Automatic annotation (TrEMBL), chains A, B:
Coiled coil: none annotated. This is cAMP-binding domain of CRP or a regulatory subunit of cAMP-dependent protein kinases. Residues 155-228 form the HTH crp-type domain. One of its GO terms (molecular function) is DNA binding. GO terms for cellular component: cytosol. InterPro entries: cNMP-bd_dom (IPR000595), cNMP-bd_dom_sf (IPR018490), Env_Response_Regulators (IPR050397), HTH_CRP (IPR012318), RmlC-like_jellyroll (IPR014710), WH-like_DNA-bd_sf (IPR036388), WH_DNA-bd_sf (IPR036390). Keywords: DNA-binding, Kinase, Transcription, Transcription regulation, Transferase. Residues 21-107 form the Cyclic nucleotide-binding domain. It comes from the Bacteria. It holds the Pfam family cNMP_binding.
Length: 238, 238
DNA sequence: GGAATCTCTTGATCTAAATCAAATACCGTG
DNA sequence: CACGGTATTTGATTTAGATCAAGAGATTCC
């Protein structure tokens, strides 16, 4: 698990300079950080780390997409959140855990950097802005989760699915002709695991929306054609 | 809002020495911290701070109970979490927010200390262990919320209510003859807002459990008589 | 290129829990 | 202690969405 390989080529400083946790750092500092990193490419659907296991490393998603999931005793899977490109993940130490609290699986082919967890305290102490920016990310994720709890408690399935899709296109939308496409493969099943419903209901919903011209979808692909109308469905005021 | 008054009597150091964020500090440091604090008593059901408002202060619950809630555009209320005695709350700065992300309301008569938010960075920098312990709390809350998302997505109402009650008695249970009582007033409505259901369903559930001798309840009071059997209801394995 | 495997769609049925509707119990207070 | 406001209980009805069931396309793999 969480195997780490040394890079074949030297990683370039420019990879990190624009990412919030590193934005205040000098080229020398970034060099330092990169020299301690391992990089690895993952195929789609590969586990990066698993819930409950010793949190030996922390990660940065350089490219691709990662899904954070939890699995119930009954074997049902729930998708807790998606990590967009450029963010840290598996940062158990930052929250006082010593095992990973959830499982991370690539949702598309991905490039991941990682460092041994014992460097965490170093990074926090040594690098200006690293902690602050990291906790900002944590804060955002917490807010998102909070919103999900509220949604699950108060909204109907249709609204929840609309919210989930909008969240995805905001985070990962890729402009295509006449719409915005979620730029990694996503199944009806996935969407149901994000919204606490079944693949059947998601399928029906998407079919209905497709008839109304709101979205267009194919196998593992969803394109939103009329984002604004989807927003209306979520019941947002204003 | 969030009015703060100077204490009438000098606060005693012993108030903080046992609380995790302060446990590593010397008496002198704790004195320093207390001297900058304002303390205030709140009646039950009073708003301590409100979602969206400027996060001017951060808080420590010295005694009593605080509920963190969010209110939907439609006016529905969702209880995100309960703050147990001894914990920090309203720590927006720690997560990079500058407004409070939710509303805090006392669930019982409470005593609250507070400090101006601009001291936050000082505290983190100056006091050993303060940041670490605080983020541990954040981590725990995050884990809890995560669990709630999983519950809401996969469990039936009966299980969710059982979980919510068990969580409450774990955090705040007070031993009474033959059982454990939730030691602040809690209505069926409150429980429904914690589990995303209706007060009617909660009432029916509690009635049924009462018939089976699992719980005993009165107006705003719930006592768990057979905790273990409630645990079984949640569907926990093992 | 055909078999096996995923993924998606759609109809029919069922059910948990919401909603609707009243009645009842409880509590503080003037 | 009677009154008004809050909580709670319980029955009847409705419904959103799960479950059951079956097929049809895609994709991958021999």
């Amino acid at each position: 698990m969480t195997a780490a390989r040394k890079p074949y080529v030297r990683l370039d400083e420019s990879l990190l300079t624009d990412l919030p946790p590193f934005s205040k750092l000098s080229a020398r500092e970034i060099r330092e950080i990169l020299d301690q990193a391992s990089s690895r490419r993952y195929d789609e659907g590969v586990t990066v780390f698993e819930e409950g296991f010793d949190a030996g490393r922390f990660f940065l998603l350089l490219d691709g997409y990662v899904r954070v999931v939890r699995i119930t005793p009954e074997g049902e899977q729930v998708i807790a959140l998606h990590i967009p490109t450029g963010q840290l993940f598996g940062i158990a130490k930052a929250l006082g855990h010593d095992t990973y609290p959830a499982t991370a699986i690539t949702a598309a082919e991905s490039i991941v950097l990682s460092w041994p967890m014992h460097l965490w305290d170093d990074f926090v102490a040594r690098y200006d802005g690293f902690a602050t920016e990291t906790y900002k990310t944590v804060g955002t994720r917490m807010k998102d989760m909070n919103n999900r709890v509220v949604e699950m408690a108060t909204q109907q399935v249709e609204q929840r699915i609309a919210c989930a899709i909008l969240r995805l296109i905001n985070q990962t939308g890729r402009k295509v002709d006449g719409g915005i496409e979620i730029d990694f493969p996503i199944t009806r099943q996935d969407l149901s695991e994000m919204t606490g419903t079944t693949l059947h209901t998601v399928s029906r919903m998407l079919s209905a929306w497709e008839k109304q011209g709101l979205v267009s979808s194919a196998r593992k692909r969803i394109t939103v054609l009329k984002a604004h109308e989807l927003v209306l469905l979520t019941g947002a005021r204003g």
